[in-house]
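Posting for a labmate who doesn't have an account.
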Amino acid sequence: MANKMRLQIITPMRSILDEEVESVILNTTEGEMGVLYDHEPVVALLGYNKLVYTQDGVKKEATTLGGFAEVTIDKVVILTDASELADEIDVERARKAKERAEKRLQGQDVNVDRARAEIALKKAIARINLSNMK
């Protein structure tokens, strides 16, 4: 039996997850990073993507929309701007958000906050991609 570690996913609005897991795969800004119990301590910057974790032999997924991961020997703490578990994603809402962001980025309006639109687009794409993997 593999040693387990605690996985916590925390956003400014709520705690998404606080469970014992066997493994975690993080999508950092530097690439994927696998984490097992007794991992070397590290802090990593997260991208707009997903994380995969194994709980009782079952793979599960959640979005990570920016933020940080702190890895210790027996814990992974995710502090992220927003996160959803796969079954919480409203796919239609994510598609509409993607369309709005793309429209803003394609337009010539100088009053559009391009950085904000780019982040909205990345978040929508991460949500859609995770929902398509269910």
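Reply:
Got it, the structure tokens are right above this. The first strand starts at residue 5 and ends at 10.
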